[in-house]
Design goal:
Layout lengths: L4 H8 L3 H10 L5 H9 L5 H7 L34 H10 L10 H8 L16 H14 L4 H9 L21 H18 L5 H12 L30 H15 L8 H9 L7 E2 L19 E2 H16 L2
Antiparallel strand pairs: 1-2
Helix pairs in contact: 2-3, 2-13, 5-7, 7-9, 9-10, 9-11, 11-13
């Protein structure tokens, strides 16, 4: 698949957080080009705007996973949840390619001042929710924090079917979740890429096999599509699973390990290809509800630069292997 020049120009006309990935993944620009663009994340656009919102204690919005004062407020009764607290901001900044040096001292400040809303646990030790712990593991590795507890936690909390489920710790489920498992393996992959530590690779492969055995889309029990969320592509997807988000992970993992695409990805690839518009874009579906610092992508029904980046690079990776 050859990407149309007009589409590339449209993608390049974007925030540095997105533009550097277009340069690297779609244009094949030399490292000095895309690295120079990535360096601008700290001083321009989305990245600079979030950095400006950081509290003196290292947090954002005064809380670890929820803003300070959220519980008991009218906002707590509204649909969705706010996406403005520390964990979500670190996840965004890390995924946008911000250099960790721009957050010098943040790991130490969070260790001193930030506690989880669950049981008042210390921030870098994580808590009981696998999705939260996956974000914390990756962000801690990025910022140089001590995440050794989480390195032990993930293999120990895999379920018998190979994946993870955020509801398992409360005794509500003994079966893995597509959402939780994808979040877990993405966190483990980010940790491995940043640190070079492969101790959790076997656990990650087990979670990936859970998804692959279901071809990223289907229930093991009935063979039916697991839910309409699989093909409702949205950005930011936060914790939400989709075939596109899963394929982007498997592309990342294959590039890190130097492996070819698994043939069991084919149905998910077909679903992503089917959602591509005649002009080469992918459309935003319904954004997740909840307060944000600011918008970073298109409105519902509009062409999404982020989804178009993800969809294009996934299809180019898949097609190139064939």
């Amino acid at each position: 698949m050859t990407t149309d020049r007009r589409l590339l120009d449209w993608l390049l006309d974007s925030d540095p957080a997105l533009r550097w990935q277009v340069e690297r993944d779609l244009l094949g620009a030399p490292p000095q080009t895309w690295q120079a663009t990535r360096a601008r994340v700290a001083t321009e656009g989305f990245g600079a705007a979030l950095l400006a919102e950081q509290d003196d204690d290292g947090q954002w919005a005064g809380g670890a996973f929820f803003p300070a004062g959220f519980f008991g407020s009218p906002e707590a009764d509204e649909p969705g949840q706010p996406w403005t607290a520390t964990t979500w901001v670190l996840k965004d900044l890390r995924e946008w390619g911000l250099d960790a040096g721009a957050l010098e001292g943040t790991a130490e400040r969070l260790a001193r001042h930030s506690r989880w809303e669950y049981d008042d646990l210390p921030y870098w030790g994580g808590e009981v929710d696998v999705c939260i712990n996956s974000y914390t593991l990756a962000s801690g590795a990025w910022l140089g924090a001590d995440v050794s507890r989480l390195v032990e936690w993930f293999p120990a909390h895999r379920l018998a079917d190979g994946g993870w489920n955020c509801e398992a710790e409360e005794g509500d489920s003994v079966r893995s979740s597509f959402h939780s498992t994808l979040n877990a393996v993405r966190g483990l992959l980010a940790y491995e890429r940043i640190t070079g530590d492969t101790r959790m690779r076997a656990a990650r492969h087990g979670g990936e096999e859970y998804l692959l055995s279901r071809r990223l889309m289907y229930r093991a029990s009935t063979g039916e599509v697991v839910g309409d969320f699989v093909t409702r592509f949205v950005h930011p997807n936060r914790h939400r699973y989709s075939a596109l988000a899963a394929l982007d992970h498997f592309r990342d993992a294959a590039l890190l390990e130097g492996t070819a695409p698994d043939p069991r990805l084919a149905d998910a690839v077909d679903a992503v290809r089917a959602a591509r518009q005649p002009d080469g874009t992918w459309l935003q579906t319904t954004p997740l509800r909840g307060r944000t610092w600011f918008g970073v992508d298109a409105g519902e029904g509009e062409p999404s630069r982020w989804l178009t980046l993800f969809g294009t690079r996934v299809l180019e990776w898949w097609d190139a292997a064939r």
